[in-house]
Each structure stands twice: as C-alpha cells, then as structure tokens.
C-alpha cells in the first residue's frame, strides 16, 4: 500500500530554501517602461518583510527570474536574498546549480511561480506555491495557492505559511510585539 501524499503543511515543514520568481510573484506582473526604455517594477513591502522573516527563522531565500533588471538586484540586496539568478532562460538548470551550491535536496526547497516557465522547477521542489492569480495550469500543479495576488501579499502569505508550519511564527510575532526583534528590518 502506497503512503498517503504529503499535505502542503507537511511539505512546508521541510523547506530550508524558498525560491521566488519575480514578475507575477514579487510584483503584480505589470511592466512599466521609462522613455529611455528602463523597466520599473513595484514591490510590496509586506512581501519583503516576509522574506526577511524567513531569513530570521533560518530559512534561506533565492530568486530565479527570466528577466534581468537592476531593480531586482537592488531589491534582492535590500532583502538580503542570498541567491539571485537573473536573465535565466532555463529555470530548472538554474535550480540544479542552486542545489549544487547549497547542498540541499529538491525536497528541502520551495518555489513560488505563476506561469508555465515556472513549472519546470515547481514540479521538482518539495513545496510548490502559486499566487491566486497564477495561470490555471500552475495552480493545478501547486501544493499550495495563496489567497492574495502576486505583488499584493502572496509572498508574505507563503512566508507566514512556512513559518507556521515550522512552528516559528508565534515566537517571531511575540518578539515583534515585545519590541525585541526585527531591528533594522524594512520590508
């Protein structure tokens, strides 16, 4: 008899590295261009704070994105996201490199993506997440789907889910309420 499939919470308990796509996940997917052709993106501060809380809880973070943008590099540095892959045409290849660099297994990783280009990684990780407004094929294959849309709290929601699954949420919240943690953290 085969073992029952793991629940999303059981999968979230094992995550040691959470990986994010950018457009449609960390942003709402909209692309704004200046007259000079530079791309502008809008990030949600609560999403950023969630990523910082993961780091505080000992969960590493990464970005794998198809576009290359100075804005994303600045945001990743600001959030102290340790692994940044930009301009990636083959996301599974970047994911394999990330596994080699970290020594983690695919089961110890989570990935949040919103479109077909993310499926190659989502189908390999132990915990696949998607924002509420993701493509239907992505939602159908995700272990967990946020209530929030990409760029509007979906990342914070998945961060909170991971922290709760790993029994780290309450202590971080208690420390925040007492003023004892999150010194210098800006979302």
Secondary-structure arrangement, i.e. CATH architecture: 3-Layer(aba) Sandwich
The total number of structural domains is 1
CATH fold field value: Rossmann fold
| Oligomer state of the chains in this structure | single chain
CATH superfamily: HAD superfamily/HAD-like
Q: Give me the secondary-structure category.
A: alpha/beta
Question: Strands across the major sheet, in which order?
Answer: 5-4-1-6-7-8
What general form does the structure show?
Answer: globular
Order of helices and strands: HEHEEHEHEHEHEHEHH
Largest sheet: 6 strands, parallel
Distance between the termini: 47 Å
Number of strands: 8
- Percent range of helical residues: 40-55%
| Rg result | 16 Å
Q: Give the number of helices.
A: 9
Tell me the layout of helices and strands:
Blueprint: H1 8-13, E1 17-20, H2 22-26, E2 32-33, E3 39-40, H3 45-56, E4 60-64, H4 70-78, E5 83-85, H5 91-102, E6 109-112, H6 119-122, E7 127-130, H7 136-141, E8 144-145, H8 154-165, H9 169-178
Parallel strand pairs: 1-4, 1-6, 4-5, 6-7, 7-8
Antiparallel strand pairs: 2-3
Helix pairs in contact: 3-8
């Amino acid at each position: 008899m085969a073992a029952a499939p793991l629940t999303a919470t059981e999968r979230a308990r094992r995550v040691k590295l959470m990986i994010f796509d950018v457009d449609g996940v960390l942003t709402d997917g909209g692309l704004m261009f200046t007259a000079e052709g530079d791309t502008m993106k809008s990030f949600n501060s609560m999403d950023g704070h969630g990523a910082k809380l993961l780091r505080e809880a000992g969960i590493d973070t990464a970005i794998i994105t198809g576009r290359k943008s100075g804005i994303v590099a600045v945001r990743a540095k600001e959030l102290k996201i340790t692994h940044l892959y930009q301009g990636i045409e083959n996301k599974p290849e970047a994911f394999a490199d990330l596994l080699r660099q970290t020594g983690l297994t695919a089961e110890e990783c989570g990935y949040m993506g919103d479109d077909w280009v993310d499926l190659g990684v989502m189908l390999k990780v132990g915990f696949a997440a998607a924002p509420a407004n993701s493509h239907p094929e992505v939602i159908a294959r995700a272990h967990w789907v946020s209530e929030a849309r990409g760029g509007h709290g979906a990342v914070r929601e998945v961060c909170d889910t991971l922290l709760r699954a790993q029994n780290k949420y309450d202590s971080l919240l208690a420390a925040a309420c007492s003023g004892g943690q999150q010194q210098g953290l800006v979302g």
